[in-house]
Structures are given as structure tokens and as C-alpha cells.
Design brief:
The structure holds two protein chains of two kinds.
Chain A lengths: L1 E3 L10 H12 L27 E7 L10 H11 L1 E8 L7 H10 L8 H27 L4 H13 L7 H20 E3 L29 H18 L5 H6 L6 H10 L1
Parallel strand pairs in A: 2-3
Antiparallel strand pairs in A: 1-3, 1-4
Helix pairs in contact in A: 3-6, 4-6
Chain B lengths: L2 H9 L21 E6 L4 H11 L5 E6 L4 H12 L13 E7 H8 L1
Classes of the chains: A alpha+beta, B alpha/beta.
């Protein structure tokens, strides 16, 4: 489990403006994604959580809100602006890009991630990664590799043994390490092996101990199972059991027709 | 209202009872409720764990599971904003609102 704790944050009245600015900055190069329009404070419904202020906000399973274009992220980011202590908790810290890790930290409003300077930082990081990707593509084009072969080669390079990194992978590793260090500085990691100062386990879950036990059946149970087994065996052998025959006497079904043919 | 907050307002000093009541160089803990935003299937689990592990009588816990306007109005006008409701009971010092993330996303825009 990874929890990101933050310092005390001032509850800002201009959260919507700050969010809109941040959204504009992060989506500057992707204008197609900028379809969210932020409501004005006057149009806010009074009967939602966005009209309240909170002391502590715990966001569980925060990895579900790691994409900054998703509605859940936008809502939780607005909620974080209304709380003194935003805390994010996740046991599945999956990220698919550097931006995802940055967003998860930004949900907690830590000073390493929050603010206008850090908005510019992530824009620069994304630009540098994109330019490295572009440079790699240009290099591979210069070598004369076909487009499909390029994709295959890049995919196979990920699965094969680690070799020398190209420019794109170097940029990814460098910025990923940077953001990971920032997350690690403000996060607390708890596993089942974690202990406190006295050496006692913090998480009081027992270790999994799986044993297979042979449980004897009662006579009644064994008779019931053996009866069912006998009926099933008879049915598979092609015959029709007495019970089934009696049920199908008063209806027209394939089993009755079959039994009639059998009699003839 | 929080007892420590009330004492600080009247006497301008901390009660000294809670060791962790200082943060950021100030004793003035704001009297605000807390919220837990979790996926919808985990709301029940959060409620159950809160009832199991927190001291009974000190907390009031309210799930917020519906984004429908009429149900939201009932929740906020009759419980959260109503000073005489059980949610705002004076004996209960801490209030928790458990919100599912889908509800918060639907209410957002």
C-alpha cells in the first residue's frame, strides 16, 4: 500500500480558475482533448460535495484517477482543492506513463507536484519525451526500415534482454526516475512485512497458509452422491432412468419419444 | 463543534489533552468534516471498517451513494446542513462523508 501524505494546504476560493489554467497548460499540445468546460462558481449546485470544505480527504484506489482527462480525476482534483489534508491511498501503483505518476502526486497536492511551476515542469517533461520519440522515429526512418518493421522491432526490443538504451528509452528512464523519487519523498510504503519501532507487525493479517484436508462423508451423504453417480452413469450409457421415464410420461419430449422407440 | 477548537476559541490556548493537536505551528484545528472517496463497491467496506475500529459515539458516518438530484437534496438539507440532525450531533466530534468516486464525477459537471 502506498499513501501520499501532504502538508497542510490552504483551501483556495479560486480552485476552478487554477484547475482551468492547469488544464489549459497540460493540454496545450492536445487541443482535441480539451473538451471539459469548468463551471463558474455561481452555477454550482449547493447540494453536492463541491459546495463543502473538508478537513481530511482520503482518496482510495487513486490509480483509477491517474488520467488527467478523465472525469474522476477532474472531480477528485477539485475535491483536493477543498481539503486541508488530501491523502491518496493505493495498493496498485500502476502507471503507464510519466504523466500518470505526476497526476497521482498532484491529487495529493504535494508541493513537489502542485503549483504553476510544476505545471510547466510536466509540460516540459512531456515535450522532451515526445521529441525523443520523434528523434528515434526519424533515425529509424533514415535507416530505411519500413513502418511495420519499425513497430515490430520496438516491440521485440522491449521483450528481449536489456541492451543499450536508445534516446527515447533514456528520456523515459530519466524522467520516470525523477518523478518516482518525488513520489517516494512524500509517500509512505506499507507492506505485510512492515514493522513499527518495537518490531511488531503494523498490518495484523495472518500469513496465508493453505492446507488441503480430506473430510470423510457421512453415510447419508455418500449414499446421495452414489445414487446421483449411478443415475448419471446410466444416462451416459444410453439408457433412460426410471425416474426420468415417469416424469416424461405425460409430456411430449425427445426422451419420451426415444423411450417409446426403445419399447417398440 | 470540536471541544478542542471551542476551548482554543474561548481561552486562546490548547487543551493539552491531545498530543497531536498541533500542526503547522497553529492550534486552530478547523471544524470541518472529513471525506473518503472510494470506488462504489468499497463504500460498504469502509463503513464496516469504520464501525469496527473507531470508538462508537464519537463519529458520525454518512454514505453518499446517489447522484440523483432529489436524493442529494435530502441528504444535504436534512442531514449535512441540518444542525439538529444526528449527523451534526454535538457529542459526535468527527463527521465522515463516504462518497463513491462515480457519484463525485457525476456531481462534478
Amino acid at each position: 500500500m502506498l499513501s501520499v501524505f501532504c502538508e497542510v494546504q490552504p483551501i483556495s476560493d479560486i480552485s476552478l480558475q487554477a484547475l482551468a489554467l492547469e488544464h489549459e497548460l497540460t493540454n496545450r499540445n492536445k487541443s482535441k482533448l480539451g473538451y471539459f468546460t469548468y463551471p463558474t462558481p455561481a452555477s454550482r449546485d449547493l447540494h453536492t460535495i463541491f459546495s463543502e470544505e473538508f478537513l481530511l480527504a482520503i482518496v482510495d484506489e487513486a490509480h483509477q484517477a491517474r488520467k488527467h482527462t478523465s472525469k474522476v480525476y477532474q472531480a477528485l482534483r477539485d475535491l483536493a482543492f477543498r481539503t486541508k489534508f488530501p491523502v491518496i491511498v493505493t495498493a496498485t501503483p500502476i502507471i503507464q506513463s510519466v504523466m500518470d505518476a505526476f497526476n497521482m502526486g498532484r491529487l495529493g497536492r504535494h508541493k513537489e507536484f502542485d503549483g504553476e511551476g510544476n505545471n510547466q515542469l510536466i509540460v516540459d517533461i512531456c515535450a522532451s519525451i515526445r521529441s525523443a520519440q520523434h528523434k528515434r522515429r526519424q533515425n529509424q526512418k533514415g535507416e530505411g526500415t519500413a513502418r511495420l518493421a519499425r513497430g515490430l522491432r520496438n516491440g521485440l526490443a522491449l521483450q528481449s534482454a536489456p541492451g543499450p538504451l536508445d534516446t527515447y528509452q533514456e528520456a523515459l528512464a530519466k524522467h520516470g526516475r525523477d518523478i518516482g523519487k518525488r513520489l517516494g519523498d512524500c509517500g509512505i510504503r506499507r507492506t505485510i512485512e512492515s514493522v513499527d519501532n518495537l518490531g511488531n507487525p503494523i498490518i495484523h493479517l495472518p500469513r496465508p497458509n493453505i492446507r488441503i484436508l480430506a473430510v470423510p462423508l457421512y453415510d447419508v451423504e455418500r449414499k446421495w452422491h452414489m445414487d446421483r453417480y449411478a443415475v448419471e452413469r446410466e444416462r451416459r450409457a444410453g439408457g433412460v432412468s426410471a425416474k426420468r421415464n415417469s416424469v416424461c410420461d405425460n409430456c411430449i419430449c425427445p426422451s419420451r419419444a426415444k423411450s417409446a422407440n426403445f419399447v417398440i | 463543534m470540536d471541544i478542542g477548537h471551542l476551548h482554543y476559541k474561548t481561552h486562546n490556548e490548547c487543551t493539552g489533552l491531545v498530543a497531536t493537536c498541533t500542526y503547522s505551528g497553529s492550534h486552530d484545528i478547523p471544524d470541518l468534516m472529513s471525506t473518503i472517496a472510494c470506488p462504489p463497491p468499497l463504500v460498504d467496506q469502509w463503513l464496516e471498517q469504520a464501525h469496527r475500529f473507531l470508538m462508537p459515539g464519537l463519529w458520525s458516518i454518512m454514505p453518499h451513494l446517489s447522484a440523483r438530484e432529489d436524493q442529494r437534496k435530502v441528504l444535504f438539507s436534512e442531514h449535512v446542513h441540518n444542525s439538529s440532525s444526528d449527523f451534526n450531533n454535538v457529542d459526535r466530534r468527527y463527521q465522515i462523508l463516504v462518497v463513491s468516486t462515480s457519484v463525485s464525477a457525476q456531481c462534478f459537471l
